[in-house]
Write a structure and sequence with these properties.
Radius of gyration: 33 Å
Number of strands: 22
Strand content: 15-25%
Bound molecules: adenosine-5'-diphosphate, magnesium ion
CATH superfamily of one domain: P-loop containing nucleotide triphosphate hydrolases
Strand order of the largest sheet: 6-7-4-3-2-5-8
Number of helices: 23
CATH class of one domain: Alpha Beta
Shape: globular
Structural class: alpha/beta
Length: 699
């Protein structure tokens, strides 16, 4: 049916073998279909005429219609130039050609109608337009108005006649031939419901729109279809995985969960925590394997929610583990969880790289016998020797810090794979979550525990430093602790390192021993020294912690109330937000001070303003997405998904959600896509599934 679209591009009139070669090489256009899918990236509005009278007030190119009143060749340097006198009902203007006049001259006819497009320039009191685009009309009303599509081109393409205009020309050559060749694969009910135009019409209108509105409608249709197919694919894959992998059925909610909930829970759960626990419960109780992502801002109480899920696993006779990317975080989990479970008869253990050999051996045995109920730890949990009696639930904190291979090793820790809950404190916008993690189930904690004071954030210039230090002194007097963070960026590492050391020195001078104690932590220190300094701060033995971003992840010192970020314009938004999340963990009002120099880029200003404006990690991630784009946020390893041709994850957020919900609706109605109305779509989906076999990045 689609054979015209699979015709090799060189067979298109005006292309041929040599130029076909360049289209293949430089633009990836192999077939008629590829050309059709070579979409313009913007339009020039030629849907209206301007008048000669308006030229002095128009900054952009103008489009005029009128008649030729005369023409002459004028000597110009060594050559000649062509001057054409053009008139519309409001006045005259000269059209000038320095080159190419000999192609134009034969077509010129005094009194003939023309359509002209170009940018006017002023010379003295007069205006002229050099090298305008000109179209000769048979009579006054032969013209058509519209939008002109602009295409990506390049030097090599242009040399062979494929400037944007050249591409436009061959596309216009193709458009009449696609009539009745572009079947619609979206089902009629969906097209009707969303009031979409047909695929064929969209293809014509995106290249040759009658008006701006037509172009918009065409884009909408094609963007939606692109996102819809992607969501359908993701949901379909999720279902396939679920069918393939049997899950351990953890459907009992018993003694441990209930006792903890009614007797030991030190505070009321937030609604968001309750919702997450409910979602996990429904999953792990269903006999289907859970692979769920839990997103929640720093301090939103993910650990507690995770712990309650672990208790369900234990109630069903299984063990649970929680893995974190650093020793500090792992031991923090261990301490927190042990404290929560103090009054319960459960065994919690910690396994990290520094666990001593003898302790390790005992621990391995207790895991195998089932004596240990919950194991906290680092990558050490992944070693083959770590075997459980029955691991039912594995939790991964700060999932982005683990590689896919590492995560997948957790799957193998049980004959049936344990349920997996991956947690992240770096919120990503819903659009990105739906796209990049669209084959996972996603839970969100979008609410902080009550009574948490939001961190007060201010932006301070270098000139305010004395005041800032005075403020630090006052806070220390109140018994609080302070973080001061310096950027350490790879390219300028020596310089940054110097700044850090200089900063440390001047802070130590301003806050001298023995009254004040200042710690320093950075990446060049030995791990043992780093841990020692951290520990000093955690225990409240030092007042100020000067550090690089090594403290970014997860450290919990509730007594720290001030976070000062030096050269904060050098940090990205999500990093700033993570750093700020280190304070505001206790009962006291906390502060974040963003220090900068005077010169700031527009983006840096926007980042700082956003930080001052809001504490909401999801809002911040939305701004971040707009500033940086999805590629930078998700990293290059994920960029395969970004082969979106038209849709833009930053700008088309609503359309992503719509596509998701419609894809869901469709699969609820016709899970196997057997209905006749879904036949074309099912076919399309099968092709896509085959072409991208390995999709999932999280497991
Ligand atoms: P996250 O890991 O999401 O950053 P944590 O789990 O470390 O957050 O929780 C942050 C703090 O909030 C901890 O001290 C925790 O005990 C406390 N917390 C958790 N849930 C609640 C709640 N529902 N009410 C009050 N405090 C809570
Ligand atoms: Mg945490």
């Amino acid at each position: 049916m689609n054979n015209i679209l699979s015709t090799p591009i060189e067979y298109l009139k005006g292309v041929g073998p040599k130029r076909g070669e360049i289209l293949r090489k430089e633009a990836g256009i192999f077939t008629f279909g590829d050309l059709l899918n070579y979409f313009p990236f913007r339009y020039i509005d030629k849907s209206a005429y301007q008048k000669v009278r308006d030229i002095p007030h128009s900054e952009n190119a103008v489009q005029l219609k009128g008649q030729i009143r005369g023409y002459k060749e004028v000597k110009f340097g060594k050559g000649k130039r062509l001057e054409v006198k053009f008139e519309d009902e409001t006045g005259y203007i000269d059209l000038i050609w320095f080159k190419g006049g000999k192609w134009i001259t034969p077509k010129l006819e005094v009194g003939g109608w023309v359509k002209v497009y170009g940018k006017a320039k002023q010379y003295g009191a007069k205006y002229n337009i050099a090298h305008p685009e000109i179209e000769f009309l048979k009579h006054e009303n032969e013209d058509s108005l519209g939008m002109q599509a602009v295409y990506h081109s390049g030097e090599k393409l242009t040399q062979l006649g494929f400037s944007s205009k050249g591409i436009e020309r061959i596309i216009k050559q193709l458009l009449p031939q696609i009539k009745n060749q572009i079947p619609d694969f979206l089902p009629d009910w969906l097209i009707a419901e969303l009031n979409l135009i047909s695929r064929e019409e969209a293809m014509v209108q995106i290249h040759d729109p009658k008006s701006y509105d037509h172009a918009k409608k065409a884009q909408l249709r094609l963007k939606f279809e692109e996102l819809f197919l992607l969501q359908l694919e993701l949901l379909f894959r999720k279902e396939i995985t679920k069918k393939k992998i049997k899950g351990i059925k953890l459907d009992k909610v018993g003694e441990h969960f209930n006792t903890f909930y009614s007797e030991h829970l030190p505070f009321e759960l937030t609604n968001a925590q309750k919702r997450v626990i409910k979602e996990v419960r429904a999953d792990i109780g269903s006999g289907i394997h859970m692979n769920r992502l839990l997103q929640g801002d720093v301090g939103s109480g993910k650990t507690l929610a995770a712990l309650m899920c672990m208790l369900i696993a234990i109630d069903n006779g299984y063990q649970a583990c929680i893995m974190a990317p650093t020793e500090i975080l792992a031991s923090q989990h261990y301490t927190t969880i042990s404290k929560f479970l103090k009054k319960m008869d459960l065994k919690v253990a910690l396994l990290t790289g520094s666990t001593k050999k003898a302790a390790r051996k005992e621990l391995h045995e207790q895991l195998l016998s089932g004596e240990i109920n919950i194991l906290c730890g680092t990558h050490a949990l992944l070693e083959d020797i770590v075997q459980y009696k029955d691991l039912g639930l594995a939790i991964i904190d700060e999932q982005h810090r683990f590689g896919v291979a590492q995560r997948s090793r957790l799957w193998k820790k049980n004959s049936l794979p344990p349920h997996i809950l991956v947690m992240t404190a770096t919120p990503i916008p819903r659009t990105l979550a739906l796209t990049f993690y669209g084959d996972l189930d996603i839970s969100v904690i979008d609410e902080l525990p009550p009574g948490r004071k939001s961190v007060q954030t201010t932006h301070r210039l270098e000139s305010a430093r004395l005041n800032v230090f005075q403020f630090v002194e006052d806070e220390i007097k109140k018994g609080r602790q302070i973080y001061i963070v310096y950027p350490l960026i790879q390219e300028s590492e020596t310089l940054d390192y110097q700044n850090l050391m200089d900063g440390f020195e001047s802070i130590s001078r301003r806050f001298p021993l023995p009254k004040y104690k200042v710690s320093i932590v950075h990446g060049k220190m030995k791990p043992a020294d780093k841990d020692y300094e951290m520990q000093q701060f955690v225990e409240g033995k030092t007042h100020i912690m000067v550090a690089t971003t090594v403290i970014e992840v997860g450290v919990n010192v509730p007594n720290a109330s001030v976070m000062i970020i030096e050269s904060s314009e050098k940090f990205g938004l999500s990093q700033l937000h993570q750093l700020r999340g280190r304070v505001g963990r206790g009962a006291d009002q906390s502060y974040c001070i963003l220090m900068t120099g005077y010169k700031l880029s527009e983006d840096a200003k926007k980042r700082l303003a956003t930080m001052v404006d809001t504490n909401d990690g999801f809002k911040i991630s939305e701004v971040d997405l707009k500033l940086r784009g999805p590629g930078d946020i998700m990293g290059t390893q994920q960029s395969g998904i970004l082969d979106l041709k038209l849709a833009d994850l930053a700008r088309d957020a609503q359309l992503v959600s719509l596509a998701r919900s419609k894809a869901q609706e469709l699969l609820e109605r016709d899970a196997e896509m057997n209905e006749k109305v879904h036949q074309a779509l099912a076919h399309r989906l099968r092709v896509i599934l085959k072409s991208r076999p390995n999709w999932s990045r999280i497991s």
